[in-house]
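pinning this so it doesn't scroll away 📌
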Amino acid sequence: MGWFVSLLVLSLLIFFHELGHFLAAKAMGVYVKVFSIGFGKKIVSFHWKNTEWKIAMIPLGGYVQMKGQEDMDPTAVSQDDDSYNTKTPYQRIFILLAGPFANFLIAFVLFWMIGLGGPPVLSPVVGEVVKESPAEKAGLQKDDIVTSVNGVEIKTWEEMAKGISQSQGAISFVIERKGYLQNITITPQMREARNDFNESIQKRMIGIGAAGVSTPLEVTDSLSYAWDKTYWASTIIFGGVQRLISGAVPAKELGGVISIVKITADASAQGWMAVFFFAALISVNLGVLNLLPIPALDGGHIMFNLYELLFRRPPSEEALMKFTIAGWIFLFGLMGLGLFNDINRLVG
């Protein structure tokens, strides 16, 4: 059942990505020939609104085939009014951006639905106070509740930690202790910490730990929760891609569709919130990866259109063909490496 849920989630995310392209293309007056979920031989298809809608055997993505645009033959053009080729570079970029935008939007909606479900968040209640730390020297005590940092109201432990790390100089805290409010000024120290990529960093800290008190997220805060989580997921994935390219993250850490399916299947056993959370992460991942400037991806097509805007002429047919072939080789190489790593993890 878990594997079925994971494949359904992946297919739906691909569908919404391609739906973004489809709707943008129709808005720009471009004829869409095929809307496909998956590649290869079709399993089922039907015609609606002059478009062939189909599901294919290989669930590794999808595509919207527009008149005048052929990924396997980038030189194939059409000069009809309803062709992709006859649209301005700005219109084409709008169509190309619509797919990744749909993925970010779906992620936001999923995080918002999680927020509406009232997920528990860590409250800013002080637990351990490290000896000789700035917090202890300033008089902060166990069970103190931080209500504001530098005049900004605090509701969660995450907000408090962010306020401390982004501040400069001494910080003004308002705390609640046994029902009474007190003002405390603390000057943080730079200490070693770990970021989301488990890298060692220097961070402003005051020397306290959380008491572990959780409270449900209020419904009115669900939109800000969704925005923060979507932004966080985007930075995590952008940062991961950057570190993979630079070599900071080894290639053996790259995962493929099997990893995606397995993670989502495992999440399904934890309940709908876990499924929504990982679906949102995968959706952001699809959006980010499709924005990479790799020919055959949306980012590669955007790069060609930016070239046309900058130099007032499209790239030559020879350049388009060479870059597109190189892009497909690179993509198949990445998919092959991800599949190889997935199999190694399964049999390891």
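📌 and the second one:
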Amino acid sequence: MDNKYHLARELRKNSTPQEQKLWKILRNRQFLNLKFKRQVPIGNYIADFLCEEKKLVIEIDGGQHNKINNIEKDKIRTECIELEGYKVIRFWNNEIDNNLEGVYETLLRVCK
């Protein structure tokens, strides 16, 4: 099995609390009847969440993403995923923890 797919499976098994919270909203077509998948390989990366119908990737970032070297890596990651034809939106862990309603409203705007 391709290493990326094995890693994606492991990431699904070990999702963060924030990924679990968002997944409760997105799973089983509960959100606007859209099909979302978790930890999906796209190019050289593994997206946290993917909706093929909307060509949308959702990334959830922890504090480590706010460090200089990771900011640049995330910028390159976003550009590479967008070159594959997807729109990338990012949320911080603290947004999921403290403003899930705002995250939900943002997703509604993006997905309508």
